[in-house]
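Fold this complex.
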Amino acid sequence: MKTFLICAMLFAGALWWGCQPAEEKKTTVDLASLEIVPNPDTLNLQVNSSQTFGLRGTKVASSEQTITNNGIIADANYTVTTTDTSTVVVSVGDAVWSSSNTSAASVSKGVVTALGPGLASITASVGSVTSPPLLVSVQAVNTAPGLSLNPPTFSVIFRDTIAVSGNVQQQAILIVTEKSSGHNDSAVAYNKSTGSFTELITGLASGFRTIVATAQNPNQRNLATTRYKYVTYYPPWSIGADSIVGDWLGTTLGENFEFNISKSVIPLRYDINGHIDIQFAGLGLVRDITLTGFVNSDGTLNVSLKQTYQGFTISGSLTGYFKTTGTGEGSYAASAKKTGWPSLSGSADWTAVKQ
Amino acid sequence: MKRTLLFFLIIASSSAVFSQHGSGTFTILLGGNVGIFNVDAGGNFNQYYTDRKLAYTGLFGLGNGSTFVIAKYRLYTASGSSKLTNVDATGTAQWKQRILSAGIRLQSDNSAFYIDATYLFNHAEESIATLNPAVDVLSTTQKIDNNGVAFALGLAPRIAGPIALDFNVEYSVMLRNPVNDAGRQTPNIGGLYYGGGLIFYFNN
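Structure:
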């Protein structure tokens, strides 16, 4: 009986309890980049004029979260960092503005004032983040107005229409002409604040064409600046356009890649297929990323990038244009994503020649 | 080390038993049974392990009169799911536990009832993994070696000659619950065992 009592007491012994680890989540938000807006390639100003700019920032919210796997006696955990990017307006008063040439232009709280002929770079900084420079070209009042056309200077197109864009000095008279289409706009409209403009030219005749843009000083018309843009227009599936069909050898960051351009089953379209090697920060060189797409009628490329590599899903796009029917250039941007990993990216410029 | 200690326990206990009861007839026990092992784990074991296998137990004993020195070996396995947090993935879990125990059995000559009191050496392994290769980092195997005590009540009616049926219930509890690789104190992985099998009694 005594033995049974002892056993019964021992059967009612204590239990040991486990515990679950607490979930952790830590979020930080940082300003990652800063941009002066609007930001024309070159701002053309006359002496004694001024222009007001704003600031746009990119904030990156980083969130750290611990994911766990628990058993009865085994535990494993891992910390994942996820990022969320958003665009925000930054107060011009919160930034430190500076001009590289204060005799040409000064800047205060986003207001750029042209003081004398010359070039100046305007930047804004918030903390350790500095914007890319805004290039300001200041001309004297009695000079030819500044004028710049957006690249490319040479391109091949497959339709009879082209949009010419650029930036002109305020108050200038802007004229855009093209002979084969009879286009002659002697008062091209442009944004009075930024000087940016886009002029659509239609009815181009096939072949090599020259577009002439001229900015005249309204007070003295002979003071003018002229810029040129050259396009070669081939109707799609014409003999000239078909010159792009074939194998191409591209180069990016010292690595070669290959693609082929062929006539599509879709009428008047050219398909692009190939492979490219892309360098990803944090992942290294990923080879043979599939490249598929087509040539837009304006001569630009519409190409997507796809691949799966070590559990990462790689996607992105490649853009560019033809300088001639045998040369092309552009850029690409791709991201590599995997559950539990931060998004990795790879981007660079490329050039290619037809084989 | 564990087996050496067990050997000494058996020898020491045997010496005590036989010196107490003189040089009369002695009995060798050989037995085996299968059963259900409900691991305590703070009451959580069944939440993790839905596919629980039967536990297998082997018995060896040596005794004189109503007192036996016994040794048992038990193997238990189970499979189920681990618990994942903050990630879209499914977890798997595999459990393997071996218990080696030694102690005393009390069973009078003319009774089918017996009582066991044993000291046990426990070894448990648990492997947890995920079915999502992107979070393979959450896969691990961790082990525990610790000691405990167990007490059993049994019924062993003779059915033919030296052969007896064996029904028993045993509760085991660990004396020390170690901290795992992640710094968490593990729960008691002893538990309640219900078994049934056969015992052979060989007398000299």
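Chain B touches chain A through 56 residues (CB under 8 Å).
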